[in-house]
Design goal:
The structure is a homodimer of 282-residue chains. By secondary structure, chain A is mostly helical. Chain A has a single domain, classed as Orthogonal Bundle (Farnesyl Diphosphate Synthase). Chain A has helices spanning 2-19, 22-32, 39-51, 56-77, 94-98, 100-121, 127-138, 144-150, 158-180, 189-209, 219-223, 228-250, 258-272, 275-278, and strands at 87-88, 91-92. In chain A, α1 (2-19) packs antiparallel against α2, α3 runs antiparallel to α13 and α6 packs antiparallel against α7 (127-138). The longest helix of chain A is centred in the middle third of the chain and has 23 residues, at 158-180. Chains A and B meet through α1, α2, α6, α7 and α8 of A and α1, α2, α6, α7 and α8 of B.
Chain lengths: 282, 282
């Protein structure tokens, strides 16, 4: 699975590599490689595999598109007018290396590529529903842009905020995996939402505990954002994370590989608990 | 045609209006309404009409998507890290009114909406080719992002720069209009390229002469960008604009409404010549 994800990302970037202005191409590659855990494409792939009979090029393309959108949101969220983050994934943020203009353009390019990639590599019959799914997950109504934009409102409705900022791509991952395997998407929403909720708590834990994936800690406090650890304490947050994961596992619809998928969800979840908290709250 | 374009843009924004964080919704509407001449959707519509038998919802949706991408590029190009433009379309730029974070997010949202809109409203069978067309016109290989990114390179290859920055959406307009009418796109590329070239010269003329559409004049000189007036003088640039328009008219492929479309192209072109130069160089 890992290799397929990296290869799909390479295919998505091939036109820019071949024809684009070199510097924005470098900024785009810097934003995409090396990746984090590639959780969203892994999830889409795991759902498609659990259902069985999926169109493999569509699964790979859709997974890459999810990751490109995720990378775009990281690059733009790190910009000086938002978090002004110095580091990301354990290395300097894109704008610290490539400058603000190229970081902004790299983010724009990654959004475009996420959609273009589906038109190039997904099964044409699935293209409209996958583009719609990706658009909803990315957009200003309830997607990534909405999540970031809630931070500009005078008060932040915490559920809508988290659903938009984090869960949206997880829902797209489970639903897109189902679509690629020829199943209706709706039954797979709940699993994605619960996993997204769990991941949001995990992100808050990493922010509060500082042993995250190369992001500076304490950013939520600095930017006045709601944080689960502030609300429930570290152990309370870990308990909540495990609850959400159990709900996500329970929400896996019946399918050929449902048991394996449930086990995978629980396994993924343990990686989400910061190492310093794994024993205390287990 | 005008009313259909505005209605299609309203439809594209309906989900954000209904569900999105209010402030980013306001910034998006501010970027889209009131519009400029809506040249790109008009062009796509004119091509579809000249061919005849087009799927009207697809023509309207694709035109709106072109305009949304165009608006996105204006909002991002005006940001402080690029032109830091105070005005656009005769009113303060988006970031001057809504602040930099919401302007950046509005641009991101407009890119997403351009694609999502096709999935929502275009004929599903045309969705893959239209998404591909839009992606190419927007992206970092040869589209709008590439155009802006060439400005970050140590030297700017002028033809690739103009093709990416301006012609790309004109090519998408003529080719998308053809696809919506069930014709292969390739025959319509040349017309779009020539019109794009003409429009680029017109943009340079407005920049140099200062009677443009509410943008501050002299920005090319300030930012060290190539400008046709600097290269050939104002009269030389007008002559070149008219040459490109004549070539665009000549490049209209044979179709039921070819003569009307050729006349429209020439008519559009006269509007592109700044008023102060219309007589002198006619």
């Amino acid at each position: 699975m890992s290799q397929r994800i990296e290869e799909a990302l390479e295919r998505a970037l091939s036109e820019v590599d071949a024809h684009g202005p070199p510097q924005v191409g470098h900024a785009i590659r810097y934003a995409v490689f090396p990746g984090g855990a590639r959780v969203r494409p892994r999830l889409a792939g795991a759902v498609a595999e659990a259902i069985g009979g999926a169109h493999a090029p569509t699964v790979d393309a859709f997974g890459a598109s999810l990751e490109l959108l995720h990378c775009a949101s990281l690059v733009h969220d790190d910009l000086p007018c938002f978090d002004d983050a110095a580091t990301r994934r354990g290395k300097p943020s894109v704008h610290r290396i490539h400058g603000e203009p190229l970081a902004l353009l790299a983010g724009d390019a990654l959004i475009v590529l996420a959609f273009e990639n589906l038109a190039r590599f997904a099964a044409p019959s699935l293209c409209p529903s996958l583009v719609a799914l990706l658009g909803r997950a990315a957009g200003a109504a309830r997607g990534l842009v909405a999540g970031q934009a809630w931070e500009s409102e005078p008060s932040i409705p915490i559920e809508a905020y988290h659903r938009a900022k984090t869960s949206s791509l997880f829902v797209a991952a489970t639903q897109g995996g189902a679509l690629a395997a020829g199943q209706p998407a709706e039954a797979w929403r709940s699993m994605g939402e619960r996993l997204g909720d769990a991941y949001q708590v995990a992100d808050d834990l990493f922010d509060a505990c500082g042993d995250g994936d190369g992001k500076p800690a304490g950013q939520d406090a600095v930017h006045g954002r709601p944080n689960a650890v502030e609300l429930w304490g570290a152990e309370g947050a870990v308990a909540r994370l495990r609850e959400r994961v159990a709900e996500a596992a329970a929400a896996v619809p019946e399918c050929a590989g449902a048991d394996g998928l449930r086990a995978l969800v629980v396994h993924m979840a343990e990686r989400l608990v910061p190492a310093s908290l794994r024993q205390t709250a287990a």
